[in-house]
Amino acid sequence: MDLKLAELLSLLLCWAFVTLTTLIPATHSSSLASRRLAPHKHKVLPTDEELSIHLPEWQDSGRKTRGTDFRKTAGIRIGDNKFGESKQHCPRGIAPCQCKEKTSGIDVTCEKINLDELIAVTDNLKAHNRNTNVGYTISYFKIRECKIPKFPDYIFMGLKISHLYIYNCEVQTLMPNSLSSLAATLKHLVLSGNRLLEVPKMALRQLRELDHLNLNQNNITKIREGSFWGLGKLTRLTIYQNAISQIDAGAFDGLTKLTEAPENSVKGDLLRLNVGRNHLSEIPKDAITTLKNLNQLEMSENKITTITPGVFRGLERLDTLTLNHNLLHNLNSSGFDGLYKLTSLSLDYNKISEIHEEAFRGLEEGLQSLSMTNNKLTAIPSPALRPLHQLTTLHLDDNNITRLEDDEFQGFGEHIKNLWLQNNHISLIPATAFNDLHSLEWLKLFNNELTSLHFELMEPILDTLKNIDIHSNPLVCDCEMRWYKKWYENEWQEIDKDYIKETSCIDPVDHHEHKITEVDLNHMYCLTPVIEDEDGGAGHLSVHVLLVLVSIAVSWCSL
């Protein structure tokens, strides 16, 4: 019996082989045969046509699309979403709040609600997550213009929120566990425009992923030791417009790693600090000295009266320091010592009238931008500025400067591109004042008391100058201003006329104002004899030449 079965199976296999070979197209078999018979040394590579793939045109099979309910799994929704659209949809039942669908999650905005309404909304969001087995990501949860003095514990339990804004809600207290459930997801927390009297450190302590904290416009009076402990990844902290008069030595402990940081910026260390518009009367040296990787420090609109030597030592990586709108009267020696990487320093709107020759010691090789707008300076502090070899921008506008000196920018003018001197009382600029400004592109001298800018003064900078503002000066339309008209008409280089304001000058004959760009060059003459050089400047004849001409005229008349 077994022998007959074996014979039967053998006959079936033979039949299957013969059947399959008859189904193979002749062309295909011949092609294969030819390739097998081709000698290796004459192997021919396939053509592009042979390598290309030819697919039949798609035809509708007429079948209906299969449903997707059976493919739901925890955390995944497969539906009819188009590419790029949100895979999360706004849930129902969160009125009076509003919801928007975004690719990164959903945005929820609650305006003018009370605590009970907020709790109902968060409960509905939690219930929706449980019922649909979908973990919603709330990209932005905004609660504004409300009256919620106290945020209870676990109000956000079960929600994943990346950015939480609670502003203008009259908040006075956050319970210790009001935010703890967001420890793993919260990146950005805004608590501005409320009534906090101190930093809610217990509520903040567990927010280990927080990157940005905003406590602006509250009633905080003191930053106590350990106020931000636990916020190991915080990079931006702003406490603008409070009533802070004291910052304890350990206030910012925990915001900088104890290990040595690499040369580049350190992820997780505080990089930006804003304590502007408070009541600080001095720079909190002991509090900020530990912020080794701080990049930007904003302390404007306080009541700081002096910068003591070495007060910023320890901030080796500080790049930008802003002290506008304080009560500084003078800059003492070595006040900025230690800020070796500082590139921008702003001291606008103070009362600075005196600057020590070594006031900017330590900034020699790094400082690029210095602004001292609206102070009490009566002259350019050149002795103090001379060591600043990398300076590119200098703002001294809105001071009481009356004149510039010869070689005023010697030693520090080589790289200056932007020079702001407007709104002063400058009436005299010597011919050599701009000799060292070889890179100057923007010069602002408007609203001063200048009657002329001699060509000899301007010649060193005309090749690089792109914009000059000299409007609102009592300029005279004479030969000394011929250079301006030629410069405006791109005689030296292409200039950007979009930023040049209309400038007028007074005709010495008719005493009327005229637009300087419309005055004919032939009418821009001097009442005293002049010699015009090749570049269109005017040089007055010497007294000796005048005497010679007069004597010749007298001799001629006597004949």
Tell me what the structure shows.
With 559 residues, the protein is of the alpha/beta class. The chain has a domain at 85-203. It is elongated, with a radius of gyration of 39 Å. It has helices at residues 2-23, 26-37, 48-51, 115-132, 201-204, 285-288, 382-385, 455-458, 482-488, 543-558; strands at 98-102, 105-111, 137-144, 150-151, 160-167, 173-174, 188-190, 212-214, 222-223, 236-238, 246-247, 272-274, 296-298, 320-322, 330-331, 344-346, 354-355, 369-371, 393-395, 418-420, 442-444, 467-469, 504-506, 513-515, 530-532, 538-540. The longest helix has 22 residues, at 2-23.
What are the defining features of this structure?
single chain; 559 residues; alpha/beta; 16-stranded mixed sheet; 10 helices; 26 strands
- Please give the radius of gyration in angstroms: 39 Å
Beta percentage is: 15-25%
Shape: elongated
| Most strands sheet | 16 strands, mixed
Secondary structure category: alpha/beta
Per DSSP, the total helix count is 10
What order do the helices and strands come in, and which of them pair?
Layout: H1 2-23, H2 26-37, H3 48-51, E1 98-102, E2 105-111, H4 115-132, E3 137-144, E4 150-151, E5 160-167, E6 173-174, E7 188-190, H5 201-204, E8 212-214, E9 222-223, E10 236-238, E11 246-247, E12 272-274, H6 285-288, E13 296-298, E14 320-322, E15 330-331, E16 344-346, E17 354-355, E18 369-371, H7 382-385, E19 393-395, E20 418-420, E21 442-444, H8 455-458, E22 467-469, H9 482-488, E23 504-506, E24 513-515, E25 530-532, E26 538-540, H10 543-558
Parallel strand pairs: 2-3, 3-5, 4-6, 5-7, 7-8, 8-10, 9-11, 10-12, 12-13, 13-14, 14-16, 15-17, 16-18, 18-19, 19-20, 20-21, 21-22
Antiparallel strand pairs: 1-2, 23-24, 25-26
